[in-house]
Write a structure and sequence with these properties.
The protein folds into two domains: about 1-180, no CATH class; about 185-355. About 65% of the residues lie in helices and about 0% in strands. It has helices at about 1-35, 55-65, 70-75, 80-115, 125-145, 155-180, 190-220, 250-275, 285-290, 290-310, 320-345, and strands at about 190, 345. The mean pLDDT is about 90.
């Protein structure tokens, strides 16, 4: 029995390492976007693309490919080869890390399989896991391809959101799989009411993450670098006349309003969780309830500071605004993971302790 638990913990820690690598991969994607590097590699080469250009001719070929798209023609036409190399690095590293992530999963899978660490109940989750991983790579290329033309300066913001949200789905599924192997049943707690409320918060958070990606893709932080008002008003004039998913100022407005809603919901959730564990201090929830509470406060503060600092950003540079934007994205991902952990701990029914 102890041997089986040891094997499960080992697999769980490997999966959690995968979650952390997905988070790093997403942050690298953020750096790639913030430095304007995402369209620097114009070919999809899953096998040999792991190597960057190794000689001057290969660099010239890669640069010539970049010269064919609209981003170079209309925004970066003054680029030298040295400028191109600086943006090429981040996109290459982003793709390299994705390949490394796949290798870590594959090597770990083979290792644990050979050593008989898996049981039958793990087969289906692993199949789903590898399908989600493959889909994420495909969605990534579809996103990049949306900007490899003569008429766009950046990738399509809706496809960017799909790429980001699918990465979060993959991370959540991997974490859930790990929690099933790691968290003892005795540490879970039953509350159908709080479980349902957690689902609502997760749905709102996924909408907010989608709007965060819209913000990034549309460069919408720049259109209203003020707080608490939006350029002197609380309601943008285009709210009733333009799209809520295409117009930058409307996207900015929606991202703020959903943030306020999410903050309120998590404060209510924290109160409910605190009340639930009053009679059961041994539940893991007694500790984990604090994670969303702390992270959502930090996220709101980072969001405000990031928006206010938007005018300081420089094209193709990684400065103060970009650092804040990356921290904002990172905390959002940790907030999501913290809610997934709590959602697992709070059961809808079964034999876990009652609160």
């Amino acid at each position: 029995m102890e041997g089986d638990m040891r094997k499960q913990r080992a697999v769980a820690y490997w999966l959690i390492a995968g979650v952390l690598m997905i988070i790093i991969q997403t942050l690298l994607g953020g750096v790639t976007r913030l430095t304007g590097s995402g369209l620097s590699i114009t070919k999809w080469d899953p096998l040999f693309g792991i190597l960057p250009p190794l000689n001057h001719k290969q660099w010239e070929d890669a640069f010539n490919g970049y010269k064919q798209i609209g981003q170079f023609k209309y925004m970066n036409s003054d680029f030298t080869l040295a400028d191109f190399k600086s943006i090429f690095f981040w996109e290459w590293f982003h793709r390299f890390w994705a390949r490394l992530l796949g290798i870590v999963f594959m090597v770990g899978f083979v290792y644990f399989l050979v050593r008989s660490y898996f049981d039958k109940k793990m087969i289906l989750p692993f199949i789903v896991l590898f399908i989600l991983g493959g889909m994420q790579g495909a969605i990534g290329w579809i996103m990049v391809a949306s900007g490899l033309n003569d008429s766009h300066l950046y990738v399509d913001h809706i496809k960017l959101a799909m790429h980001f949200v699918s990465a979060m789905v993959l991370a959540c599924y991997t974490l859930w799989f790990a929690l099933q192997l790691l968290v003892p049943e005795g540490k879970r707690i039953i509350s159908k009411k709080l479980s349902n409320f957690t689902i609502i918060i997760l749905l709102v958070l996924f909408v907010q993450l989608t709007y965060g990606a819209f913000m990034a893709g549309l460069k919408a932080a720049m259109v209203a670098p003020t707080w608490p008002d939006i350029n002197g008003s609380y309601l943008p004039g285009s709210l009733q006349t333009k799209s809520l998913v295409i117009d930058p100022i409307n996207v900015h407005f929606m991202h703020r309003e959903i943030a306020y809603l999410l903050f309120t919901l998590i404060m209510l959730w924290f109160g409910m969780a605190t009340k639930l564990i009053a009679s059961n201090k041994t539940a893991l929830l007694d500790k984990t309830r604090w994670w969303p509470f702390i992270l959502v406060w930090l996220q709101v503060i980072l969001g405000i500071v990031t928006v206010i600092s938007a005018p300081s950003q420089q094209l193709n540079k990684f400065g103060g605004f970009q650092i804040l934007a990356e921290l904002h994205q990172m905390v959002a991902m940790f907030l999501l993971m913290s809610l997934i952990v709590n959602f697992y701990i709070i059961k809808r029914g079964g034999t876990a302790p009652m609160g």
